[in-house]
Amino acid sequence: MVETSPTPKPAPAGRLPVIENQPELSGVEKWIESLRPYGSMIALVCALVFFIFVAVTWLVKSRQSESEAQWMQLNRSLAETELTGKTDSLLDVADEYPEGKAGLWALQIAGDVDLRNGLGLMTNPNGRPEGFQIEEGLKQVEKARRALQKIVDAPAAQKSVMLQQRSTFSLAYALESLGEFSEAKKYYQVIVDTAPDSPFGPPAARGVERASDPEFVALFEKFKNWEDKLGPAPGPAIPGVPDISFP
User: Fold this and answer.
1) CA–CA gap between residue 17 and residue 11 (Å, rounded)
2) What pTM does this model have?
3) 74-81 LR contacts (CB < 8 Å, sep 24+)
4) pLDDT in tens, 10-45
5) Rounded Cα distance, 122 and 114, in Å
6) I need a labelling partner for 24 at 20 to 30 A (CA). Which of 14, 129, 198, 243 fits?
7) Is 79 exposed, middle or buried (0-12, 13-18, 19+ CB in 10 A)?
8) 77 within 8 A of 68, measured Cβ to Cβ
9) Contact 131, 125 (CB under 8 A)
């Protein structure tokens, strides 16, 4: 009698036959196999990350280009101010970039120029036939004060330490030049309290002393109301022109 091997039983419907002696998967392969059900979600996340990366890169480059444009425009305005002595182009830069560092520096330079021009009109009559121009000078100083006040009032995050100190000192000096001594003393004192060792510390301390001196305040009021009037010349009167006409 011939022995025959038993016929293998068919696998139940819907199930694959078990293959014996299948090599065991490595740790990495098991991890990959566990991720297969989430393949579509992983692909979506990767696409989203790539999109965010592209958007951030574009935003950084866009801001860099905008920053370069601000400084280039500021340089052009500086050249124009050097030629004309007027600060209109600098104030235009400040209006166009009110939150940019270039815009704040444009205000600082415009304030310094207008302050210098105003004090020149008030204190240096040489070369001007009309003499002192106190009223016009005060207008220039007031224009400088408005520009400098914008810098001081701007958020600290938009300003460097140097710009903060410089604008505060310049504002105090402009206020002193306008005769607003109590306000000037307040801003001078800010420099003395926060940055006594800075280049602005010693002159700010002297500013506090001037603004606290009643005699200095009285002298300023006298100068502010000064009227340049020509009185009679000292000495004997100049004789009149002799009559040399023909009879």
Assistant:
1) 6
2) 0.64
3) 74/102, 74/105, 74/106, 77/106, 78/109, 81/109, 81/110, 81/113
4) 555 555 555 555 566 566 666 666 666 766 776 666
5) 12
6) 14
7) exposed
8) no
9) yes
